[in-house]
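Good day; I would like, with your permission, to put a structural problem before you. A protein sequence and the structure tokens that stand for its backbone fold form the material at issue. The record follows directly beneath this note:
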Amino acid sequence: MPRKLATVPRLTASLAAGGLLAAALAACGGSGKPPAAAAPCPLLTAAEISSAAGATFKAGRPETSDANHAVLGCWYSSPKGYAVLWSWRGAGPGARAAPACSGRLQQADGSGYRGFFCKTSTDVQTMYVAKGNYYLDLEIGAGAAPGAARTLGALAATRLP
């Protein structure tokens, strides 16, 4: 019996916290849906990726969420490799702290954005960008020109709202 009584305060606290969260979301106009991210495919063209990477890339192909069919990423392909640009809004990977990097991570901030550049031992380059409440993750497969992801991430950051 004491065990059941001990769960009542926890249940009450959980319900109260849930109520406060719902009230806060309602007060802020939140509908419970995640905020809209910037559409990733218009942020970079195949010509821009081709120029920076040193290989010819095809036009980006939207990558959509299975859950809500929202476009989350843009996939570019080349006979030499790939590039993929992911976009989200709100908290996400790398949003609050430096992202994980299995290789060498470098601070790569630019005008109006926070950035991190990672190059792995397998020559995969990743650029993480945070601008306001918008976040990008650009990855370019092995074989791209040195610094290609850094260059393209900085360019995409200029096109974020």
About this structure: The two ends are 57 Å apart (CA to CA). The mean pLDDT is 79.
